[in-house]
Design a protein that fits this description.
Elements (H helix, E strand, L loop, with lengths): L6 H9 L4 E5 L6 H11 L4 E4 L3 H5 L4 H7 L5 E4 L7 H14 L7 E5 L3 H7 L7 E5 L12 H7 L3 H4 L4 H22 L6 H13 L3 E2 L2 H8 L3 H13 L3 E4 L15 E4 L2 H7 L5 H5 L4 H16 L5 E6 L5 E7 L5 E6 L9 H10 L3 E6 L5 E2 L4 E5 H12 L1
Parallel strand pairs: 1-4, 1-5, 2-3, 3-4, 11-12, 12-14
Antiparallel strand pairs: 6-8, 7-8, 9-10, 10-11, 13-14
Helix pairs in contact: 4-5, 7-13, 9-10, 9-13, 10-13, 11-12, 15-17
Amino acid sequence: MMIARHHERGVLQRLNEGPAVVLLGPRQVGKTTLAREIADELPGTVYLDLEAPGDAARLVDPSRYLRRHSGSLVVLDEVQRMPGLFQTLRGQIDQRRRQGFRTCQFLLLGSASRTLLSQSAESLAGRAAYYELPGLDALEVPGLRDALWIRGGFPEAFTASDDQSSARWRLAFVRTYLERDIPQFGVRIPAETLRRFWTMLAHRQGGLLNASALGQSLGVSGRAVSRYLDLLVDLMLVRRLQPYFANVGKRLVRSPKVYIRDAGIVHSLLGLRTFDEVLSHPVAGFSWEGFVIENVLAVAPFGTDAWFYRTQAGAEIDLLLLLPDQRLWAVEVKRAGAPKASKGLELAANDLNVSERFVVYPGTESYPVSEKTLAVSLETLMGRLLAMAA
């Protein structure tokens, strides 16, 4: 099942603006598929998978090999396998600039942690743009939003033949990350400890971070919990949504909220396989909230900032977006079929003088739920944001 990714446009746009793009994302999120589609569209593109010994061998003398393909786009998959290559790439980019080639030279794919790859790519400062590829989103699989919510956005999990096969794929994905991938990044955390931590986050999906309480449950220090969380955030598996601070004369919540970014991983860690099992579990509302947030941020215009907002008195916005034009949008997420604008949303939106306020719910119709608040489907809100990004 081939699924067209609207992120192809974003990657091509950045390639047409500069010499190199670093495409980031967890393993199995679809980076290689997207890169191959781009390669097929650009004649003469050279594709190398640096996990394949034959392809890696071509770069024994990287300068000579890359000079032979000057003027062509070169795609380097799993580029973190050869960290010493970045210095050579810098030289090649500078040489090509002198020859008149300024755009569309290198597409670099990395599955390592964001920090590890950015440290390796320091020599490309000012020469490379970074683009994060998320999982599949609701606009890419029209009419299948609920299936996407339950199975998550990893393409192989979503396109599995049935819910059980999808759940098995996701559990294998978690196990592979814990037992093989994370140790390869030089991290020395017992796999079982990290799995327990990941599962605890699933139980607390969308909750405020309490490192001390998590540490007590794990039998480790709060500092260790912060280190574990930093790792999962760095691997683009967990989102730490920061609170928005504003001078509104009210006591504000200052702890971040934590979400496992893929809803399917949340459900697998909790042993939930089907739509009915998820709906009957206490995590359902928080899982839906995280799913909506990830889908919205997947299509938000470049340069959009995101937070949540909450006061000690109960005024709250689940997702606060600061768009590139400096407008604030307030998004409340409801799983109910007939949502209402909560008093907390109205108070918070008035505190911050937001320009638009929405309640995202599972239905399809758009209608006002208060004088200033509109109930919309996830796809409707995403469509508005995607149109801005065009």
